[in-house]
Amino acid sequence: MNPLKMAMTTLRREGRRLAAAPFASPTPLIAFRSSLGSPSEEVCLSGVRFISTQVVRNRMKSVKNIQKITKAMKMVAASKLRAVQSRTENSRGLWQPFSVLLSDTPSVDVKKNVIITISSDKGLCGGINSTSVKTSRNIHKLNSGPEKENKYVILGEKAKAQLLRDSKKDIHLVMTELQKNPLNYTQVSVVADEILKNVEFDALRIVFNKFQSVVSFLPTMSTVLSPEVLFNAVLENACSEQGARMSAMDSSSRNAGEMLDRLTLTYNRTRQASITTELIEIISGASALEG
């Protein structure tokens, strides 16, 4: 099984486990054990239930597991980013001449417009997929008209899932798992030929995220379809995906650390309240025997 899929599955399981546990701030004035409540809960005089030390320990364990997963995923994303970043920088020289060549092309009346939307196949990478889909929808809206036809060609599972909700009839072609194996120029050439053979258009736009830094990417549109341009667009988007995932997992790890600090404080307060309650019971019992 893919290590990333295993990590995502474990992350979802730990998240459900964490969300399922009851929790309330353990700040009772005087707590006493309830013969009607569960062993993991105690009730204060105001009637508010608060968490036991065992439940807090379980939560701390879940958060630690999630933190380990997010740190591992950050390291994997950093490794993949380094691998694809150099290829992306080298490929930029392939498509830039096309952009200069077509910058002064006169506009024509476009009736058949095709939007190639590039996204990732996996999640946990911030908002890069939503950005691509939003840009594609804006282009679709700007080129809509009574005699105009707009079609989507989707490269990636996440864009497919979003566009199927409201634009199912406009989706002409879907291709996924382009990055299941290391991407190469031959593979992208086959994809470009497939689009040219099966899609009729007067104008075509490729929507992708151009990589700028680990925490920054730029929604970009290209107006020419060639293996060189498509290859660069897919690499740029893959680079943006890994950078966004690395940033998201780093943020998740920090949030898990902060939550762990709060849970540790809660555990100490709960333990202190439990000890205080037991001491009060012992003193009260001793006073009753003496009286």
TrEMBL record:
<dbReference type="GO" id="GO:0046933">
    <property type="term" value="F:proton-transporting ATP synthase activity, rotational mechanism"/>
</dbReference>
<keyword id="KW-0375">Hydrogen ion transport</keyword>
<keyword id="KW-0406">Ion transport</keyword>
<keyword id="KW-0066">ATP synthesis</keyword>
<dbReference type="Pfam" id="PF00231">
    <property type="entry name" value="ATP-synt"/>
</dbReference>
<comment type="similarity">
    <text>Belongs to the ATPase gamma chain family.</text>
</comment>
<keyword id="KW-0813">Transport</keyword>
<dbReference type="GO" id="GO:0005739">
    <property type="term" value="C:mitochondrion"/>
</dbReference>
<dbReference type="InterPro" id="IPR035968">
    <property type="entry name" value="ATP_synth_F1_ATPase_gsu"/>
</dbReference>
<dbReference type="InterPro" id="IPR000131">
    <property type="entry name" value="ATP_synth_F1_gsu"/>
</dbReference>
<protein>
    <recommendedName>
        <fullName>ATP synthase subunit gamma, mitochondrial</fullName>
    </recommendedName>
</protein>
<dbReference type="InterPro" id="IPR023632">
    <property type="entry name" value="ATP_synth_F1_gsu_CS"/>
</dbReference>
<dbReference type="GO" id="GO:0045259">
    <property type="term" value="C:proton-transporting ATP synthase complex"/>
</dbReference>
<keyword id="KW-0472">Membrane</keyword>
<keyword id="KW-0139">CF(1)</keyword>
